[in-house]
Amino acid sequence: MTDLDLTVRTLQIALDVHEPGERAHADRVSVYAVAMGESLGLTDDELMLLRRAAQLHDIGKMRVPADLLRRIGELTEDDLKTLRRHAEAAEEVLEDYEELRDAVPSIRHHHERWDGGGYPDGLEGIEIPIGARILAVAEAYDVLTAGAIWRDPIPWQDALERLANDAGGQFDPRVVDALRKVAPVIQPVGQS
Questions:
Q1: pLDDT band for position 53 (50/70/90)?
Q2: What backbone phi and psi angles, to 5 degrees, belong to 171?
Q3: What total number of domains does the chain contain?
Q4: Measured between alpha carbons, how far is 192 from 89 in angstroms, rounded to an integer?
Q5: Nearest C-alpha neighbor of 100 from the set 157, 34, 55
Q6: Could you give the CA distance from residue 106 to residue 91 in angstroms, rounded to a whole number?
Q7: Which structural domain range is residue 137 located in?
Q8: What is this structure's pTM?
């Protein structure tokens, strides 16, 4: 294990203590993202960068109160603002890690939307870094198939259908197509 691998794991473990289950989520998102990146023709260096970004895509949640991350039910507008800040907070958490600097744009922008309605900067279309567009689809796929504190999991085939319905709105259609190609090979654990 390299020093950078150890650093990434240590950061993941720290986040997992703050939000249990986050490390497993990040590892699954990493698998999905790299598979999609390969399908889209990313280079080996780009795939490694994408893997790092996926492993740390929610690291900014360390700056969000744990009780808010675990809250079930309606959230206030202030709650949503606090939650959304995690995308920007990731930059602050990672600013001292020179070797992770190139992963930050994908992490910061993984909640942008293809149609421009996302956050933190309201980027749209190809303004959004390709890594962030891939992470958006990978994260949504994992939340749909693995579930979360606020939702039960659904079968991977149903998740693909939902993501396809959001292609061109929330998600880059090309990235959703890449997931559709690789999903039968990378089915979520426990689903066939």
A1: very high
A2: -120, 150
A3: 1
A4: 37
A5: 55
A6: 11
A7: 3-182
A8: 0.94
